[in-house]
Specification:
Number of helices: 18
CATH topology of the largest domain: Four Helix Bundle (Hemerythrin (Met), subunit A)
CATH architecture of the largest domain: Up-down Bundle
Shape: globular
CATH class of the largest domain: Mainly Alpha
Strand content: 5-15%
Helix content: 40-55%
Length: 568
């Protein structure tokens, strides 16, 4: 069963004392199975965003230890900073990352909240999806009055903490309160302005944030607030849904910023938020100079941003992930205030690097090292990995032809047509690259199964089952390679027919690579299938593979005829 993963993002009320920050963050690494991904301090806000990830139970334990350490080292009675806050560990949200539902994450948030309240004697408010009542869903409501308002808030029956003491005793005077939640992935994002005016920055923030601003008589800032028939204040909503924003001045950089929380980037992505701030700032005579990412961001958000800005330029979107990320960084000025390192800011890359520690990834080897590793006496990588790699190169050649065609002089009106083909080609070569490693993993899985003990009847039974399961997997992997290679031939054929005529031979070589990859993968399917008898699923794969090979050879012949006809 795949591991359940959750992210935990405690925000502690200390952003200036590096020693204190280090002591608090380091407790995360004392819990096995939890990875400390990022520590992002802010001097002006006097606040640090800490990000960890792991399986739920270890993460809960690490969060508990972190909150305890923050309570020991931070004295809220002496705290000041630009950001709203009411506790040493101000907020501690849990975020579902992989193979876990929001409902399950809510239960872990409640479990953590109960431990913090009962064991650490800190008042805890549950918010967002873990909230105990509707008015507590909004963090701003839970934190209203901030630390200074806690003495009154804690004794107010309407705002009794969900867990922990409902009094402002000596301990609470030091620790403050903590808000714990289960929420979707939140991106903390600041946009830089060429002004020092907090008032003007706030005006832009009110223009864009979902909450908007109060409606006033005559539409003037000094006008009396307007109310509806029930006496409630009337608000003019901002232009961006699922966005919270304020304006502030950052002395560290000498500029004003729009500080935003994008609470659902499927509704308002980072690039849309950036462009909307550019628009609204421009209407007020202010220029956006760049932006800043606080904490981490999902890979897809950066890829979507890169594609968004490339599309505005009418450029092909079928380029590498690294190129998309570079376009996103430059377009939004994410490197204006400091270097933007994708390996340290994108959550998938950080996890990938952690998982690679102590292990060798074939696709990260240089071409020379890959060849030498293949030629070594080690049985892996073998024909399966090489087949996947040949197929990937075939699809990559088709992608190249599509990109060249998209940018060909005189073909400007067809950029979108070829961009779509390039994106399809990119999908196939990326997926086939993954299968280079996966085929070797499948082989190692079989070896591990054969290495299991076989002393008792029970051990023999377990070993036999493990070998069968590993062998079945070693059939499914090359069968997937076959499918990917076969599907990529549609892109290759289209590029031979309609792509840049100067690159038609590249499409031809792509076809040779794709079919070679398919046929090589089929050899692996058949040799592994020979050791499994009477399995209907395996029999079906052999039948489908035979038909696929026949069709692939016919497609290859068609493509090569097109190539030959165009080169005379």
């Amino acid at each position: 069963m795949a591991k359940q993963l959750i992210e935990c993002v405690p925000n502690i009320s200390e952003g200036r004392d590096e020693n204190v920050i280090r002591q608090i963050a380091s407790v995360v690494e004392t819990v096995e199975g939890v990875y400390l991904l990022d520590v992002d301090p802010g001097k002006a806000t006097n606040r640090t965003v800490i990000t960890m990830v792991g399986e739920p139970e270890p993460v809960i334990e690490a969060a508990q230890k972190l909150i305890q350490k923050a309570a020991e080292l931070i004295d809220m009675s002496k705290h000041s900073g630009e950001h709203p806050r009411f506790g040493a560990t101000d907020v501690c949200p849990l975020v579902p990352v992989a193979n876990i539902t929001m409902e399950e994450t809510v239960q872990y948030a409640k479990k953590l909240a109960e431990r913090v309240g009962n064991e650490l004697h800190i008042p805890v408010y549950l918010y967002e999806n873990a909230a105990s009542e509707p008015k507590r869903r909004n963090l701003a409501n839970c934190r209203a009055g901030e630390y200074e308002g806690l003495p009154k808030k804690l004794v107010d029956p309407e705002w009794k903490p969900d867990f922990g003491p409902a009094e402002f005793n000596a301990r609470v005077a030091k620790t403050g309160a903590t808000a714990i939640s289960a929420r979707n992935f939140l991106v903390a994002y600041n946009v830089n302005l060429n002004t020092t005016s907090t008032r003007r920055a706030n005006a832009i923030a009110f223009d864009v944030r979902e909450k908007g601003r109060l409606a006033r008589e005559g539409g003037k800032l000094t006008g009396k607030p307007l109310k509806d028939e029930q006496g409630n204040p009337i608000r003019i909503p901002g232009t961006l849904k699922k966005v919270k924003a304020i304006g502030w001045f950052i002395e560290e950089y000498g500029i004003a910023q729009i500080s935003m929380n994008l609470t659902d980037i499927t509704v308002t992505p980072v690039h849309i938020a950036f462009d909307e701030v550019v628009k609204k700032a421009g209407e007020r005579g202010i220029r956006v100079t760049g932006s800043e990412l606080v904490g981490l961001i999902p890979l897809q958000a950066m890829l979507d941003a890169g594609k968004y800005f490339l599309e505005k330029q009418q450029r092909s979107l079928g380029v590498s992930d690294s190129e998309l990320i570079k376009i996103a960084v430059k377009s939004m000025g994410l490197d204006e205030l400091g270097p933007f390192d994708p390996r340290k800011k994108i959550i998938e890359y950080i996890l990938e690097d952690i998982e690679k520690k102590g292990s060798k990834s074939l696709i990260d080897l240089s071409l020379t090292d890959f060849v030498h590793e293949t030629a070594s006496e080690s049985p892996a990588p073998g024909g399966g990995s090489i087949s996947a790699y040949m197929g990937s190169l075939g699809a990559a050649l088709a992608t190249m032809v599509a990109n060249l065609s998209s940018h060909k002089r005189g073909w400007d009106s067809r950029w979108k047509e070829f961009s779509d083909w390039a994106e399809k080609g990119k999908y196939y070569h990326d997926e086939l690259l993954k299968m280079v490693n996966e085929d070797t993993r499948a082989f190692n899985r079989i070896m591990d199964a054969f290495g299991l003990p076989k002393n008792s009847d029970e051990e023999k039974k377990k070993r036999k089952k493990a070998i069968e399961e590993a062998t079945l997997y070693a059939i499914k992997v090359p069968f997937k390679v076959m499918n990917l290679c076969f599907e990529s031939l549609q892109v290759i054929k289209a590029m031979a027919e309609t792509g840049n005529p100067n690159s038609v031979t590249d499409a031809g070589v792509g076809a040779l690579g794709a079919v070679a990859g398919l046929r090589g993968a089929f050899y692996n399917v058949k040799i592994n299938a020979a050791s499994i008898e009477g399995n209907a699923e395996v029999d079906t794969m052999i039948e489908q593979g035979t038909e696929m090979e026949k069709k692939a050879l016919a497609l290859q012949e068609d493509i090569l005829k097109i190539v030959d006809s165009k080169i005379g």
